From TrEMBL:
Entry protein name: YceI family protein
UniProt keyword annotation of Metal-binding present: no
Top-level division of the source organism's lineage: Bacteria
Species assigned in the record: Mangrovivirga cuniculi
UniProt key word Lyase: no
Length: 257
């Protein structure tokens, strides 16, 4: 079914397209200042994300990489006439999981717990102060390959260089999504290609894009230092991000406040 035509959708992470203005220094994302959120129409139908909805991540450094996900805990998407008109969802930062390390409570050198605790610390997410992140839709457009392109930035080459935006992006994108991503107390508007589908009472949205973590104040191990690059002592600023969202119809909305 054809959805999202002529709608506005705003996203979290400024990522990979040069078709919209406001590029950040990351080179492979469109990042700009916070924008006004889209509003639902009075006849909109609400869709609620399912428990398996998540945002995935891959973080890299010259000597290795880790991957995991952050669960989506709540949210709502409004659809009218087969089109998404507005919506938002919340991510539980304290629920972050690491997929490539096993959790062994009997191991005092448990790397899973060490990395989790470090990611929760002020070096990264500062989860005690900012336990959640939020994405709020501002605009949705149909994806047009003739006018919308994905451009990656040059990366410092090592064995574990992050995948470029062109290599990592979702296959067969249907829409160009923009939204306000709030993380660690900072809000930026981001735009990226996504594949969206609606069948019956179920809506799915998938996206894969790159962001520059320093745009949201995650500065630990910043790769800016040439000296650190020479010693391979840095963490790439580029993070591979994926959105895997499934939502089911909840109820009709007679009036949206």
């Amino acid at each position: 079914m054809k959805i999202f035509k002529g709608i506005a959708f705003a996203t979290v992470t400024a990522f990979m397209l040069s078709a919209c203005g406001g590029n950040s220094n990351s080179g492979d994302a469109v990042v700009s200042e916070e924008k006004e959120a889209a509003e639902a129409g009075t006849a909109a139908v609400k869709f609620t994300p399912t428990d398996d909805s998540q945002v995935t991540w891959i973080g890299s450094k010259p000597t290795g990489k880790h991957n995991g996900y952050i669960p989506v805990t709540e949210g709502e998407l409004f659809v009218e006439g087969g089109n998404i008109t507005s919506g938002s969802f919340t991510m539980d930062i304290k629920g972050l999981e690491i997929n490539d390390l096993e959790n062994d409570p009997n191991d005092e050198e448990d790397m899973h717990d060490k990395l989790t605790n470090h990611l929760m610390s002020p070096d990264f997410f500062a989860a005690d102060s900012f336990p959640t992140a939020n994405f709020e839709i501002t605009e949705v457009k149909e994806y047009d390959a003739s006018t919308m392109s994905v451009e990656g930035k040059d990366q410092f080459e090592t064995e574990y260089t992050p995948e470029s935006a062109e290599e990592f992006m979702v296959e067969n994108p249907t829409h160009w999504i923009s939204g306000n991503l709030t993380m660690r107390g900072t809000t930026k508007n981001v735009a990226f290609p996504a594949h969206v589908n609606m069948e019956g009472n179920e809506l799915t949205a998938k996206a894969k894009f790159n962001i520059d973590r320093t745009d949201w104040g995650l500065m630990y191990g910043d790769e800016a230092s040439v000296a650190d690059k020479a010693k391979d002592k840095f963490i790439y600023n580029t993070v591979n991000v994926g959105i895997e969202l499934t939502a089911t119809q909840a109820e009709e909305v007679a009036e949206v406040q």
